[in-house]
Amino acid sequence: MKFIPIQCFTAILLISLTYSRRIGIKDQVILSGYDYRTDFFVQPVDHFGFSNPDTYKQRYLIAEQFWNKDGGPIFFYTGNEGDIAWFCNNTGFMWDIAAEFKALLVFAEHRYYGESIPYGPEAYKSPTKMNYLTSEQALADFAVLISHLKATLPGATNSSVVAFGGSYGGMLSAWMRIRYPNVIVGALAGSAPIWQFPSLTPCEAFNKVLTNAFNQASPTCVDNIRKSWAAITERGSTDAGRDFLTKTFRLCGPLTSTTDVTLFKAWLVEAWTDLAMVNYPYPANFLENLPGWPVKKVCDKLSIPTEGDQLLEFLFEAANIYFNYTGNTPCLNTSQQATASLGDLGWDYQSCTEMVMPMCTNGQMDMFEPSPWNFTDFSEQCYKRWKTRPRPDWISTQYWGKQIQSVTNIIFSNGLLDPWSSGGVLESPGASLVPIIIKDGAHHLDLRASNPLDPPTVVAARTQEKNIIKMWLGQQQ
Ligand SMILES: *[C@@H]1O[C@H](CO)[C@@H](O)[C@H](O)[C@H]1NC(C)=O
Ligand SMILES: *[C@@H]1O[C@H](CO)[C@@H](O)[C@H](O)[C@H]1NC(C)=O
Ligand SMILES: *[C@@H]1O[C@H](CO)[C@@H](O)[C@H](O)[C@H]1NC(C)=O
Ligand SMILES: *[C@@H]1O[C@H](CO)[C@@H](O)[C@H](O)[C@H]1NC(C)=O
Ligand SMILES: *[C@@H]1O[C@H](CO)[C@@H](O)[C@H](O)[C@H]1NC(C)=O
């Protein structure tokens, strides 16, 4: 999804396949008390036509233990591109406030992810079967599921529903309020880059914010990373140099060609990008185990001006914090980030249809090699993989682009350390659209469970969010 500033043809492949790691949160918070039951609801595969009679089973998780059946609200998580249990586990904020609001919690899985796949995993091999993987169909699933729950759960008939979501899930909760304001009273859209689309946000913005987050840790670190690409390219141009890189970075497999070196660079770009997203104040267990404030830890290794081979040695030490914080990684595997789970593939499909998010770098405002946004090339790659061509302007037509001033009751929270804040709503476009800026926040930190190491800015954000939700529900503050 992010446009990796190495040349496009390899980059795109890596980008989209690793999307869910960029935008989604996969760390596991193993906390007791997240008790829910799992249920399935039969949905039409096609909500918008009448000739396809097929159905599929949508998974949802439901927790009733906090709920006051006599008027308590429903807090509804609009699932992202992945297994809903991840998001359930990583949206501690909903669990933290459920008792106070006496709320019913529901986490609904997004179609084509986790266990909610129309036509089963084989669908991924067939463009016609993938055809129903759109945000519109997903929102319709959510709306229909809510109606079903209200009709069948004793006590739910008159419950107000508040949508919650982070990242793409946050985009969905905001869009849910735009499309189905009759179904939900409001939406908390955490780190939702609803404007990371063509002609709404400049393509360089994402990498500029990313670089700023590193710059806050150490400007020298940024200079060193910026210089590292040329150092890698130079060493990577000869057999002896590639051998040096393989040894210095303790790679599992040798770099044997300049193509390998290009992939190696893309792999590093990905690591720096992921780090910025998960730059949380406390240790968290993502795909990689990380210390608190990991960007600072990484930049500590790159805080002395240096160049050449010494720079590459420091760069390895920095990368090793990301890949080997636990000390359990025997060698660094450059193909690891390209591992394609179903969630990654699903997002790749979505980015090749509706979710066109232009990214580019120029090497000046950011710390990467210059790489322009090339839609033609992007479209070609999509056609090769999915037989689809992306429609770059559809999302702004469908969800109103920047003309959302007449929409009501959405909170847009954004951490300024999060590169995705580049496409977020940071200033209020309308009276009851409330931007909340979390100065020290990475990717939807506010939606995570509270933690003693949380900075005051996120504590304040959560209080403000609760007060606004109370207002939507007609409760006194
Ligand atoms: C969610 O957390 C539970 C424990 O609370 C754990 O058993 C489960 O594996 C986690 N699921 C995912 C997908 O992270
Ligand atoms: C729901 O609200 C309507 C209108 O206020 C009321 O007539 C009805 O009794 C309520 N239903 C339940 C189950 O509380
Ligand atoms: C990872 O850390 C362990 C423990 O410090 C070390 O033995 C191992 O060599 C490291 N792996 C790499 C790739 O550096
Ligand atoms: C590197 O990662 C790939 C993809 O996950 C895997 O197939 C391969 O076995 C790994 N290599 C090593 C040496 O761990
Ligand atoms: C964009 O990509 C297309 C297809 O790969 C290529 O022909 C074209 O030269 C590229 N345009 C620019 C400006 O790089």
TrEMBL record:
Residues 1-20 form the signal peptide. Pfam families: Peptidase_S28 (PF05577). The keyword Cell membrane does not apply. Keywords: Glycoprotein, Hydrolase, Protease, Signal. InterPro entries: AB_hydrolase_fold (IPR029058), Peptidase_S28 (IPR008758), Ser_carbopepase_S28_SKS (IPR042269). This is PCP-like protein. Belongs to the peptidase S28 family.
